[in-house]
């Protein structure tokens, strides 16, 4: 079985997976931890209907789909917030400053979600089974290993839940999208917007500093 289908068993039989990756499932969805998390907290919501699971997200996510899955999106978002609250505290120096994150975001779930959680899909998904990403916006992870990983969440390659359904917008071919956003697009720090051009290892070091300037382990 190709790695493109590595998510399939979470769709067909989440009850058989007991390695801690499944955080919730019912008849409609499985919510799992991404096995290659690109941030501190990176979850996937997988619809369990085979018909939906086989569909391309930009084609199948319409108003009805969003209504049906919104509650699961909300609960995954809350999971991300609780994960952060349990594991980290915001450093004192950032408590009262009017920085990008705006004070102690771990005291205010709405603010945290608005500033620090990203929900959406990849315009060219690498995994065959339809999935929605719910990810904290730190990109502080050993699994974040290359430009493609970073840009897939930090450019127009990533389509936000709020921007779905995609009414009338033409995306271009998969190859065009990948060239524009994953290969040619500069690496821009998601905290301070500094441009790292093509220098992934510099960005990676910088992300480490950014993260540690805001958060410390409890
Ligand atoms: Zn994906
Ligand atoms: Zn920065």
UniProtKB/TrEMBL annotation:
GO molecular function: DNA 5'-adenosine monophosphate hydrolase activity; DNA-3'-diphospho-5'-guanosine diphosphatase activity; double-stranded RNA binding; metal ion binding; mismatched DNA binding; single-strand break-containing DNA binding; single-stranded DNA binding
Ribosomal protein found in the keyword field: no
GO BP annotation list: single strand break repair
Catalysed reaction equations from the record: a 5'-end adenosine-5'-diphospho-5'-2'-deoxyribonucleoside-DNA + H2O = a 5'-end 5'-phospho-2'-deoxyribonucleoside-DNA + AMP + 2 H(+); a 5'-end adenosine-5'-diphospho-5'-ribonucleoside-2'-deoxyribonucleotide-DNA + H2O = a 5'-end 5'-phospho-ribonucleoside-2'-deoxyribonucleotide-DNA + AMP + 2 H(+); a 3'-end 2'-deoxyribonucleotide-3'-diphospho-5'-guanosine-DNA + H2O = a 3'-end 2'-deoxyribonucleotide 3'-phosphate-DNA + GMP + 2 H(+)
EC code(s) of this entry: 3.6.1.71, 3.6.1.72
GO cellular component: cytoplasm; nucleus
Enzyme class: hydrolase
Keyword ATP-binding: no
Record domain Aprataxin C2HE/C2H2/C2HC zinc finger: where: 154-212
Protein keywords: Cytoplasm, DNA damage, DNA repair, DNA-binding, Hydrolase, Metal-binding, Nucleus, Zinc
Record-annotated HIT domain positions: 19-139
Coarse class of the protein's main subcellular location: cytoplasm
Matching Pfam families: HIT (PF01230), zf-C2HE (PF16278)
Compartment(s) of residence: Cytoplasm; Nucleus
Described purpose of this protein according to its UniProt entry: DNA-binding protein involved in single-strand DNA break repair, double-strand DNA break repair and base excision repair. Resolves abortive DNA ligation intermediates formed either at base excision sites, or when DNA ligases attempt to repair non-ligatable breaks induced by reactive oxygen species. Catalyzes the release of adenylate groups covalently linked to 5'-phosphate termini, resulting in the production of 5'-phosphate termini that can be efficiently rejoined.
Protein name as annotated: Aprataxin-like protein
Organism: Saccharomyces paradoxus (Yeast)
């Amino acid at each position: 079985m190709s790695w493109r289908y590595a998510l399939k068993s979470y769709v067909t039989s989440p009850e058989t997976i007991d390695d801690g990756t499944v955080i919730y499932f019912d008849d409609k969805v499985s919510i799992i931890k991404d096995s290659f998390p690109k941030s501190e907290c990176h979850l996937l919501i997988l619809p369990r209907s085979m018909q939906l699971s086989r569909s391309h997200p930009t084609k199948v996510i319409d108003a009805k789909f969003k209504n049906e899955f919104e509650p699961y999106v909300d609960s995954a978002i809350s999971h991300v917030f609780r994960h952060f609250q349990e594991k980290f505290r915001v450093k004192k120096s950032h408590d009262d400053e009017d920085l990008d994150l705006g004070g102690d975001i771990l005291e205010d779930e709405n603010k945290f979600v608005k500033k620090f959680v990203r929900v959406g899909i990849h315009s060219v998904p690498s995994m065959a089974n339809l999935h929605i990403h719910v990810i904290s916006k730190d990109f502080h992870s050993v699994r974040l290993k290359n430009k493609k990983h970073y840009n897939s969440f930090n450019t127009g390659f990533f389509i936000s839940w709020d921007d779905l359904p995609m009414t009338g917008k033409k995306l271009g071919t998969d190859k065009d999208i990948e060239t524009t956003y994953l290969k040619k697009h500069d690496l821009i720090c998601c905290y301070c917007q500094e441009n790292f051009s093509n220098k992934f290892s510099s960005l990676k070091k910088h992300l480490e500093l950014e993260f540690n300037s805001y958060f410390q382990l409890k």
